[in-house]
TrEMBL record, chains A, B:
This is Precorrin-3B C(17)-methyltransferase. NCBIfam families: cobJ_cbiH (TIGR01466). InterPro entries: 4pyrrol_Mease, 4pyrrol_Methylase_sf, 4pyrrole_Mease_sub1, 4pyrrole_Mease_sub2, Cbl_synth_CobJ/CibH_dom, NERD, Precorrin_MeTrfase. It is an enzyme of class 2 (transferase). The gene is cobJ. GO terms for biological process: cobalamin biosynthetic process; methylation.
Amino acid sequence: MLFIVGFGAGGENGMTLEARQALEKSDVIAGYTVYAELLKSIFPHKEYFVTPMRKEKERCIWAIETAKQNKTVSLVCSGDSGVYGMASLVLELAKGEDLEIKIIPGVTAACSGAAVLGAPLSHDFAVISLSDLLTPWELIEKRIQYAAMGDFVICIYNPSSKKRADYLRRASEIVLQYQSPDTVCGYVRNIGRDGEEKRILSLKQLQEAHLDMFTTVYIGNSQTTVMDGRMVTPRGYLL
Amino acid sequence: MLFIVGFGAGGENGMTLEARQALEKSDVIAGYTVYAELLKSIFPHKEYFVTPMRKEKERCIWAIETAKQNKTVSLVCSGDSGVYGMASLVLELAKGEDLEIKIIPGVTAACSGAAVLGAPLSHDFAVISLSDLLTPWELIEKRIQYAAMGDFVICIYNPSSKKRADYLRRASEIVLQYQSPDTVCGYVRNIGRDGEEKRILSLKQLQEAHLDMFTTVYIGNSQTTVMDGRMVTPRGYLL
């Protein structure tokens, strides 16, 4: 049995009962180093299989092979198991295998970060990753452009890394072609973890911000506003 | 104290610990009739304030006024509290009030439905509601068009209602201008509840489908495929 578990932002509080039960039931928990450390504080007596970043494929193959040996394995993802998570990779690698796989969803960073900022995602939104490890940058740019043209709220995952220091600036510049420099934006770093930080800022300010990969970014639509220090996209009820 | 609680798909299993604790702590739980009934089976001894659909504003005002009288109130939303939830409306209505408001995120239908189908949301996606109660249909059409042009996976909330029987067909027709009729689509009805139903179908078939408002719809991107009966959007790891 292989569970692919989205465990939420990181703390015990953000985990669903279903995720918790899968982890409790598992013989071994497989995951990225940082996430395994978070889970060890909640489930200290479990066996862990830990691999660093960019070893996702090896981790998934290990999880599949171990589960095939009649072990119960949980492959863990922060946030949701589907949204930029391991679910698709496991399903690809396990294609045709006689193995029971259960995908357990979790609260993705778009939603947990939004709750920290206020309610930025109360209307139609697009989720875009700025990581070009697996996606051509041209396609990412095209998606940012169409999301801005459609006046979607845009939620950005993986806004930056050492190698991609200027990607958020380039993304902001694309949006600036279609939206006002005063567009309300926000970001949250380390959502639900120690050292959580948030900031609400303008699109013009976002262009100059230096953020890391543990940050989730929100670019409001034309209606997004600030109320009592919170980022709010009205749904339209009060119109 | 006012909690705005996203309680997930409906069952106890899909609720986070944080959501559960807020509900346990509350003097009264306010929500839409159907969701209150779901919660009564988990928290039978709570006081409930129940209003039907389209009474969202009245419900929020009641929750704010009651919380101001030193009561702990949870205003509940299925899925997430932000994504087409009550969080933005409450923040608008409570603007300037001296009231502690905590927004508790939950697993939104995009993620819980995706886990039922497989892994359709493993790459950039757009979330669009087809409800034109609060949004002009022209804007909804524009967003569908740009999402299709950007080759986003599209997740559709509120695909239909009695008054809007042909909206999903119209949405499908827009996507068909940019994507193949064989594009892999899927839908899930009553996610995580009794009577859960799912189906994977082509965009051409989706055009003719008759769905209700308890259904979440996924239109794949150009890379989305079917593997062992599951809808999968590859992230690109195996390329």
